[in-house]
Amino acid sequence: MPVNCPRNLKQVQNTVYANRNSQRICHDEIFGLHELAYQLPGFVWHISSFPDLLVFAGKPEMLQLARANLEEAVSHSYPQLISYDTTFQMGDFYLSVVAMRNTALTNDPVFPVGFMLHERKFMQHHEMFLQDILGKLGMGSKKLSKVPLVVDREKGIVGALKKAFPNVSLVYCRNHVLRDIEYWIKKHGGTRDDVKVLKDQIAMLIDSASKDEFEAKIAKFRLGWSEGFLTYFEQHLYLDLIENVASFYTGQFEAFKNKSPTNNISEAMNKIIKTQNDWRELPVDCMVLSLYYMQSYFLFEFQRARLGLGNYSVKQGVPLAPKEVKMPPFIPLESIIERVRSQMKEEASRMDIPSANRLTQSSLAKTVVEMGLVSLDSSAGVFVVKSPSNESVHVVHNTSNGTKCSCPSSGKCFHVLAVEMATGLRLDSKRTYSLSMMRKRGRGKETKSGRKKPRTKDLDYTVNPAPDSILSNLQSKIPPSIKTEDNTHDSSQQDNIAGPEATAALQGIATFGPWIHTDLNEPDWSTVAPRSQCLAPKTWLEGETIEQAITSYISECKVSDSVLCMPTFIYQMAAVFSFGPVLQLCAAQGALNFDTVFIPFNTDVNGPGSHWLLAAAEFREKDIRVFNSIHSFTTSENASATLLKVVACMYTAAGEDFQATDWTVTDVINAPQQSNGTPAADWSCWGGFSMFWSRCCAGRIRRCGGGWQSDDTVIVGTLSRYSPLFLFLMLLGVFLLLWNMHLLERCNCESVSSLYQPQSNISSAIKPSASAHNQNSCPHMGREPTPEEAQEQRSLLESISWPGPPRLEVPVNQSSDPAHSYFVIQPPANVSGQATWRVGGKLEVLVYMHNYLGQPKTYGGDFLLARIRSPEIGAGASGRVVDQQNGTYAVELPLLWAGPAQVEVTLVHSSEAVGVLKRLREERPDRVCFQSLFRSGSLQETTECNLCLPTGPRQAELCDYTDPHTGEPWYCYKPKRLGCDRRINHFRGEYKKNLLYTHESLLFTRSTVQVPVKAHGMDNITILSAAEGQSSVGKDQAKFLPSGYYFQGAWRPLSGMPIQQFNNSSAITQCLRGKLLYMFGDSTVRQWFEYLSAFVPEFSLRSPQNIGPYMAVDSVNNILMTFRCHGPPIRFNTVLSSELHYIANEIDGLRGGTDTIVALSIWSHFSTFPVEVYIRRLRHIRHAMARLLDRAPGTLVVVRTANPQITDPDYSLYNSDWFSVQLDAVLRAMFRGMRGVVLLDAWDMTLAHPTQPHLLHPAPDIIKNMADLILSHVCPAKQQTSKA
Question: At residue 51, what are phi and psi to the nearest 5 degrees?
């Protein structure tokens, strides 16, 4: 129960606690889950319960079987595939299953390889699981390229795979692609015929045998597609079909030879699991046990097949297993769920313990009894219980303190229950349920974790002795047959990171598993003396000891701002091509912000022998200096390449380009030399570190040739006399850090690099990366406005200022929730003693906004749209929303026709989401990338372009394409090998991702963006005809009237100008006879050209589709129509640079006159930029218009306004209606009242339409009404009447 009037803070805290507690997964389930993990060794290999439940499970035998199948598939080209899918309604969790085919058996039966139970569908959870299980399957580069992995286009799964395994052969399920298309068509008002036709056409595209055939079919099909579907296809389907679905791609895999790609095996496995569980939801521990039984059943049946028994049979040529093979225990598939659930009623009556835990324990106990695994040792007076999953044995006996069992469980385990079932006795057990006690007992005699001296199994990397030591000599005598090696990386796939394309090479490398383990003990830290003594003399050092020691001395020297020491595992991970952890650490540490980065490493990673060295990466001199205590050990090529990989990761994590050719690797020739029996780490690492600092701090080392020469030995005394110099270095490091903050970010317009993505998930608390692309940091961005223009700009910005929350960050649960919000239709005014709604009046509606807690909001700023409509008679009008700044909104709707009418209120964005959009508009105008191609002969390069590009020593020079007439800025990075005059075209790159904080992303979901607000009470009214003598447009409507309304499907302006209907070619031709119609702008004005040119059939010239320029000519009627897109920024696919014309310049080139009509629309492509950019562009156009109308007063100019559109939550970050309404207000203000200029209100004409959806490119019905309105201005009704 919510507490409306709490008495004190404690009551509120108790209520919050109870609410949270009710949403938790049952504690008994979690206990049972951990208990199963101990009782079924190897099956559950990962459990985490905070902050979200995450379980990874799978029998080792099944993983071994899957790995063997993969090996066979690669070597013999079997039709193998891996399918991964998430299923629902299994319990209070999702279940994701990796499934494969058993290609050794006839009909290739499907079997489950591994499972993930997860509470949320986070991409990072899929990434963790896939990295884990694919690593266990030995999925190296060769297998990743030959065995397809089939998924259903779920964003979390696809993102995880592309991030963790860039080289994976990813295939999308054909059925899910077609299902997504059907969903999109129905959502956007399509008919059944639309669904059938479009799905058939996409299916034909998927079946294309070659890319040329694919493109030819697209060229044919797209002629009949609507603009909305064409946009959807280009943005969401085109690349997916080519790269992941089409037959010419999937046909390379044996699994899809002459077959369409589907994940039917996942669907089949999901059905098996649900059928096995009787289509019921289970607690998490019951589900885990059920999955264990199911895998045991599959293993049993597969083993029977190898014996020539059972339902399956082996393929010809596959050898049978020996008859004496031991069969694994199993439970029949059809009885698994009964086995798990059958204990519920019985155990509830005889056990006073949590039922959820009893289900799994009782089921295991019953299995033990049925398999005869309980025996009595009468001499010892104990029961002996064997485990059904392995050979382990536990003893159950009675004591004065109750029944005891030797297993780790702290509760009443299945061993005790099995004895009770077998004997019919009830054994009293006084154990308490303690997860901590169970974990402690499960460790056996091991010491506590978390000690300063780690236990042997707490470390997962190796420390090896020097090559001339006794231990190395002993190891060299081990016969080769005893030594084992596990190398999952295909060396043939290695990339040469030392080349000039270092970053590109890194992007193609997959991530592999952990480094080598050690059984050596760590040295006693008490022997590690400060400063002047060697570290742990005559003791083999662990890598962690080395990095901690060097880090502590860096801190003591007070130069932490400019010097960094990396962990030793960084080098090891880079050597085995596991770049994910390296990039995450480099991003978290900000490695590129330091002058020097130390990299301790061991040679056993790259080649024979084991020896510690210390590398110092000097970013100023671009040199890696290696300190080596054995001169005979020069730095190998592999070690040099690995060091360069580490440095390349530092650049990549910071978004910078890395050029390996600029770097050198230098051996320090006079580094201190070690003696036999002395640890290499003492001399190479600490000696090199001391030598480095004696050079930096005392100036006693001078550079000579390829190495370093010293006049003295290593300085190991106190360094306090150099404190002033250390202080200077620290201040210098701070200065360099601040300086680099403006230079490190540079857009990579291709897409977010697979190596750059990991840093975005390091912590949800990290702010999304800001960019240097903003006006304040770009003084070259356009000409300075005059004082009058600056004053107008300030006035315009003030006029569109938007109220927001009272504080910067509002918890998501206190943001606007459309589900809790509602609107109320106010009663009509009492006129002549009658309370009725009549034509000529207005309808008042109050909207009450509430947050997710159900509490009324106390501030405004929500973006709402409202309209009234009568679809039956084709009538509709938009309403005016007034923010009352207290969480309520007054809506005024005109009553312009008689009959029943429905009221609709839509929450486009909450006030909190609007605050995020404001931030993006000012901080991230670079969130859409632009590029240009430069070409000369066969040489071509592509560089980034924008209104503003960061400059500095780390960036390339700029090519300045600022328009000389208007001063409109545009820049591209200069190609490395071509001149600025070799620019060929302009095109849109990718949309930037990772723009939001984690809590901000919750404000942009399908349940929060463009969601209807429900009515409290009725949502419809009946409008009566106007009273006798009353006008259809009342005087009280003047303040809120829209520009017009629809009635019987036709637009009726309220300006008083009659609109005519131009319904055929002759009417349009007669009106346009002798006219020149010039159209400029974006694709929304191109729609006018496409509509009108259909009635001017004589000659039509069109350049590239959807881009222009276009021209249509009717020489008989002397009609000329043209369309040209506006200058950059413009998000078209490809525009020739010679065709990038600014509207102001085009208008200045027109003669004008009574025979000239100029129509323009410019707004959509400016939604990602600060409003000042749009104001400047409109100002130049307005000046050009004024000059045109001065020299040719009879010219008609039509300016189209913006219009609302349906967008998905992700796309709203770039083209939200809130961006559009802001630009629309600026456009109206700048052209309102201008002589000879007509504002065509596309916003009202789109929003008010009673049946058509709100599309970026309005439906043909709306375009027809817009054309009628333009032609009515060209040919007024009086002129038409006089001619008649």
Answer: -80, -15
Q: What is the mean pLDDT of residues 129-142?
A: 81
Backbone angles phi, psi at 963, to 5 degrees: -70, 125
**1012 and 904 in contact (C-beta within 8 Å)?**
yes
3-state secondary structure of 681: helix
Give the model confidence (pLDDT) of 65-104 as tens digits: 899 888 888 887 788 889 999 988 888 888 999 999 888 8
Both tokens assigned to 394 = 């536990």
Residue 414: predicted pLDDT: 79
Highest averaged pLDDT of the listed ranges 636-640, 932-936, 1092-1096: 932-936
- Alpha-helix residue ranges (DSSP H) falling in 384-434: 414-423
Strand order in the sheet with 1196-1200: 1099-1102, 1110-1114, 1119-1125, 1076-1081, 1156-1161, 1196-1200, 1237-1240
Q: Which residue, among 648, 680, 672, has the nearest Cα to 662 in the 3D structure? A: 648
DSSP-derived secondary structure letter, 321: P
User: CA torsion 301→302→303→307, rounded to 10°?
Assistant: 90
* DSSP per-residue codes, 735-758: HHHHHHTTTS----SS---TTTGG
Count Cβ atoms within 10 A of the Cβ of residue 801 and give its class: 0-12 exposed, 13-18 middle, 19 or more buried: exposed
- 770: tokens are 């800001």
Which residues lie below 8 Å from residue 541, measured CB to CB, with a gap of 6+? Answer: 463, 523, 535, 612, 679, 681, 682, 685
Q: What is the pLDDT of residue 1151?
A: 94
Q: Which of 26-30, 512-516, 645-649 has the highest mean pLDDT?
A: 645-649
What tokens does 421 get?
């079932």
Tell me, what amino acid is at 68? Answer: A
Q: Which of 1000, 996, 994 is nearest to 810 (CA)?
A: 1000
- Do you know the residue count of the chain? 1284
Q: What would the DSSP string read from start to end of 828-864? A: PPEETTEE--BTTSEEEEEEE-BBTTSPBP-----EE
- Residues 774, 779, 781, 787, CA torsion sign: positive
Instruction: Measure the CA–CA gap between 1148 and 1159, rounded to whole angstroms.
Output: 14
755: nearest Cα among 589, 998, 508? 508
Confidence of residue 952 (pLDDT cuts 50, 70, 90): confident
Tell me: the pLDDT tens digits for 581-635? 788 788 878 888 888 898 988 876 555 456 788 889 988 888 898 887 776 667 7
- Angle at 34 (CA atoms; ends 762, 425), nearest 5 degrees: 175
- Is the pLDDT score of 744 beyond 50? no
Q: How many secondary structure helices (H) and strands (E) does the chain include?
A: 40, 44
Instruction: Report the alpha-carbon distance of residue 296 to residue 330 in Å, rounded.
Output: 5
Distance, CA of 540 to CA of 551 (rounded, Å): 19
pLDDT at 978: 94
